[in-house]
Specification:
4-stranded mixed sheet; 15 strands
């Protein structure tokens, strides 16, 4: 049975991205296994909520789901639930239900890739630049000056945190606090690196070559795991998120995987038929036959000449809309011929009209 991701998140089909994100934040807190330690079904419920969010928060997956297409779930949640929660709640986490303290993770970085409609149709490689923290080359990220050592913090024993007993109205409670000696790093540096000042990271300009797949649209987000900011003291690097913005092409209007272009013809061509040159997204053109008696606004569909499909084989269609253009000015000979044509068909027309 096909899942209804809108019902799972409790939102309507016309919900915007902010509503979907708010619904996921609320349900994630309610269904996360850490919030329900005695409920064996919590994990399955949380997975279902996470799956619904991954589909509806992605414009291309959501569009495919709305059209009744089967969603390939093989690539969803590849980064694991921690990465999904970080992308929604930030590095601070969503719950605070305890657990072992992790080293500070590098920040995620978001950059925008502007590409043409043709590049979106067939895929491309985009070179992006951004400034972010990198591992210090002088100390290889250790934070200590070359030739010196780094010691484990004697107060927290390398954990970066300490358990502290606090009194509350519920009695004595144990909480985790950041170690005040090593400031949460779990390490003590006697002689800091002269380049990074003991942090193990420096800010630099990065250049990244990103493979953009075919079929992307404005709003598509690509995730490059571990390509974001480096973290101090060798902790896990953040991720790089590439936000796609597809620039408009004056030749076409895009609707999902399909493209539409308008081709003008005159009255005689519409009545008698003709052959016109139609632009293609790759920059070439093809001849298309316009049959006799073609009406204004009539559409001729050319299969397989539209956009490449994201995550699937094949291409959409190119819809050619015929625009019949009525001349605003006629020569005397053109007017005479048209009046004869109207007379033959018995069409009533104005007896006199001045054309230049």
């Amino acid at each position: 049975m096909r899942k209804d991701y809108y019902s799972i998140l409790g939102v309507s089909q016309d919900a915007d991205q902010d509503e979907i994100k708010r619904a996921f934040r609320r349900l994630a807190r309610e269904t996360h296994p850490d919030a329900n330690p005695d409920d064996p079904g919590a994990d399955a419920r949380f997975r279902e909520v996470a799956e619904a969010y991954e589909v509806l928060s992605n414009p291309d997956r959501r569009r495919a789901f709305d059209h009744g297409e089967t969603i390939d779930l093989g690539d969803l949640l590849m980064g694991g639930f921690d990465d999904l929660l970080r992308s929604v709640f930030g590095n601070g986490g969503a719950f605070g239900f305890g657990g072992q303290r992790r080293p500070a993770r590098g920040r995620d970085v978001a950059v925008e890739a502007r590409i043409s409609l043709a590049d979106a149709a067939f895929g491309t490689t985009s070179e992006l630049k951004f400034r972010a923290l990198s591992t210090c080359r002088e100390c290889a990220g250790v934070g200590a000056a070359p030739g010196t050592s780094v010691e484990t913090c004697r107060q927290c024993h390398g954990t970066g945190s300490m358990q502290v007993a606090r009194r509350s109205i519920f009695g004595q409670m144990m909480t985790l606090t950041t170690c005040d000696l090593c400031h949460g790093s779990g390490r003590l540096v006697a002689e800091p690196c002269r380049v990074c000042g003991g942090r193990g990271v420096v800010r630099e300009e990065h250049t990244v070559s990103v493979e953009i797949p075919q079929g992307v649209s404005t709003g598509t987000r690509l995730r490059l795991a571990g390509r974001g900011e480096a973290a101090p003291h060798g902790a896990q690097a953040g991720d790089l998120y590439v936000e796609i913005r597809v620039q408009a092409d004056p030749r076409f209007v895009r609707d999902g995987d399909d493209l539409t272009c308008v081709v003008p013809i005159d009255i005689a061509q519409a009545a008698l038929g003709t052959e016109v040159s139609v632009p293609l997204i790759e920059g070439e053109s093809m001849n298309v036959t316009i049959p006799p008696g073609t009406q204004p606004g009539q559409t001729i569909t050319i299969s397989g000449e539209g956009m490449g499909r994201l995550g699937r084989r094949g291409r959409g269609n190119l819809n050619v809309v015929v625009e019949v253009v009525v001349p605003e000015r006629l020569s005397k000979e053109e007017e005479r011929v048209l009046r004869e044509f109207a007379e033959l068909r018995g069409d009533a027309v104005r007896s006199r009209r001045r054309f230049r």
